[in-house]
Amino acid sequence: MYKRLSIVMFPFLLLALIGASVWGYLEHQEKNTILIKAENQYQRAFHDLSFHMDKLHTELGNTLAVNETSEPSYRKGLVNVWRLTSQAQSDITQLPLMLLPFNKTEDFLANMANFSYRMSVRDMTKQPLTEAEMKTLNTLYAHSADITKEIRGVQNKVIANNLRWMDVETALASENEMHDNAIIDGFKIVDKQVGGYEELNWGTGSLNVFSKNDVKMLTGNDMTADQVKKKAIDFLGVKDSSGIKVVENGGSAPEFQSYSVVIPSGDASKTDTQLDFTKKGGHLIYFMKSRDVPAAKFNLRQARDVANEFLDQHEYKDLSAISYDQYQNTATILFAKKENNVTIYPEQVTVKVALDTLEVTGLQATNYIYSQKKRNIGQPKITVDQARKQLSSKMKVTGESLAIIKNDLDEEVLCHEFIGTMNNNIYRVYVNADVGMEEKIETIRQDQAEAAKGKS
């Protein structure tokens, strides 16, 4: 019986064994294909990085070689520097360096890109490069030579020893750090070298994505954790203060000092309420009470009115709604300060309102808190009619007002703000009220346009 059963089962077992072997082989081939593809992508990104850094060094040298009064040549050179630096940043993001300390180099490249972009977009006939900016360019040229040399050294080792980036990824993911990996060691040397550079003068108009909050804009004295806890309790009207946690952030750096407050929901199905306050003055810069909003029983205008009243009850005064948005039955309303009928866009507050009960569930006020200052808002030198000439003749203007915005140089400028329609789209166009130059164009939705027209 067993013999007969064995004879019957043997072909099936053999087929199963063959099938498993074929499946295993195909899985192995597919895995190898994926690994080869990933390795090729890493190699391409790395060699592109080396190429772009080399070109960047050359372009900086070419820019410095032209005559200081040659505005078109400087502009072209700085645009190329910005483009190559941005490409080098993109190359770095494609390499498996997430677990490798390389932030100093990334910060350096980001600041270089921002510096060159700012210098290239400004009118050099009126604002030629200063002596300090020329010194910065010369320093960047020298530093780029050092970085290029180190990366070339790594590239030579990769080619000579046929090194694989997949080994780098494995080494970085491993808890046991590999100190003998040439690629990892090379990038560590680059980052250490960049970290040793003296702080560069990126200029007063430098667009720095790593710019710090200006604590000088804050009013009041430094708060203690207990004082901030009381402010959170008063803000939310909480009766039970047990379980409230207060964490101090920022260490010794004043620009990052703040307090985070967490208030337990008391319900496992609901998320905790979170608030952030500045240490100096105890100003609320963030509030979030996330919850499900099953249905929208109220409209955006009702939510705007509730949000407006909410801001008036707290320290956010003289604000007007400038845009609405709705997502998952929650309204997001953006407010900006208004002074003498001029909208101050740098001072912005975002409020979230649940459309089922009109409960305020969120607040983001960082820009408003850190941008408050006394401004001398002058009269526009360009009339509305003169500014309108900068618009397309096909645009139908539906609203106009004065506004202060930050331009590409991160400078506050007074502008004529126009809301108009063209090609079935709605646009917000800002024209410099002093020189008549177009500063910025934004595409907006219908509900945002209604908000902009209804600012009061």
Automatic annotation (TrEMBL):
<dbReference type="Pfam" id="PF14620">
    <property type="entry name" value="YPEB_PepSY1-2"/>
</dbReference>
<protein>
    <submittedName>
        <fullName>Germination protein YpeB</fullName>
    </submittedName>
</protein>
<feature type="domain" description="Sporulation protein YpeB N-terminal">
    <location>
        <begin position="30"/>
        <end position="167"/>
    </location>
</feature>
<dbReference type="InterPro" id="IPR048402">
    <property type="entry name" value="YpeB_N"/>
</dbReference>
<feature type="domain" description="Sporulation protein YpeB PepSY1 and PepSY2">
    <location>
        <begin position="185"/>
        <end position="377"/>
    </location>
</feature>
<dbReference type="InterPro" id="IPR014239">
    <property type="entry name" value="YpeB_PepSY1-2"/>
</dbReference>
<dbReference type="Pfam" id="PF20769">
    <property type="entry name" value="YPEB_N"/>
</dbReference>
